[in-house]
Amino acid sequence: MHLWRDRAQLLDIVREVAVSDFRLKYNDSVLGYAWGLLSPLVMLVIYLTVFRKILGIGGRGFEVYVLVGVVFWTFFQDCTFSGLNALTRKTGLLRAVPLPVAVVVASGMVSTFITLAINSLLLVVVLALRGVLSPLAPFAVVPIVCLALLAAGIGFFVALAYVHFRDTGLMWHTALQALFWLTPVVYPVQSDSLAEVLYLNPVARCLYLIRWFLTSSFFPATRFFVLTIACCVGVFGVGLYAFLRRQETIPEAL
Q: How many other β-carbons are positioned within 10 Å of the β-carbon of residue 98?
């Protein structure tokens, strides 16, 4: 196992596997990636139709609000599922090669980071063309990284749970559906008392800060900002630590 202790080599492996997974996911073509964009765009149109046209909810800037929410929620969802499914897709590799299991799981999630980077750039272009992009937009990188760390930490948790409970995929899918509606992804929070409850959710906090930096012209509350960073880093650290402690027994359990 000493071969894999070189951190630089491990990072190279993660990068290569992640890029390979990304290419396979989109058939290594621009058209494939374009089809990958279609699903969130369709959902965006549906949410706007339901909330704005049918329920009469949403005022000026509502389209941007929903667009940002859908883009980054889709990443969060895909990242956690990629971590979970990495074990299923790479079972043969894990049994054949003395590769740390954490590297395989991390590679699956890093492949979604590539999609996130591309979608974030496209989102910035759209906001700039609409004339609503804030001068503070570069600071949005911080909550985006926080969301990535949060998703990765949870991804390690659900991947570890899968080893012991094979129905984890179904349970996590159900949990995500509930979390989606408990997070202000496609609806604005109208009540301050409700906001205090909803923003206990770190995903909601990340989305709030991403929207803020992309469209507002002054900084958010420092306490809210710092606590969000601490929470996301904490979840990532605990998730990674728990996974690393058990990874030696995972290949045999798969």
A: 9
Supply 190's token pair. 């109208």
| Cα radius of gyration rounded to whole Å, the chain | 19
Taken in order 50, 53, 58, 61, the sign of the CA dihedral is: positive
DSSP structure string for the chain: -GGG--HHHHHHHHHHHHHHHHHHHTTTSHHHHHHHHHHHHHHHHHHHIIIIIIS----TTHHHHHHHHHHHHHHHHHHHHHHHHHHHHTHHHHHHS---HHHHHHHHHHHHHHHHHHHHHHHHHHHHHHT---TTGGGGHHHHHHHHHHHHHHHHHHHHHHHH-TTHHHHHHHHHHHHHHTTTSSS----HHHHHHHTTSHHHHHHHHHHHHHH-SS---HHHHHHHHHHHHHHHHHHHHHHHHHGGGHHHH-
pLDDT tens, 151-193?
999 999 999 998 888 888 899 999 999 999 999 998 888 888 8
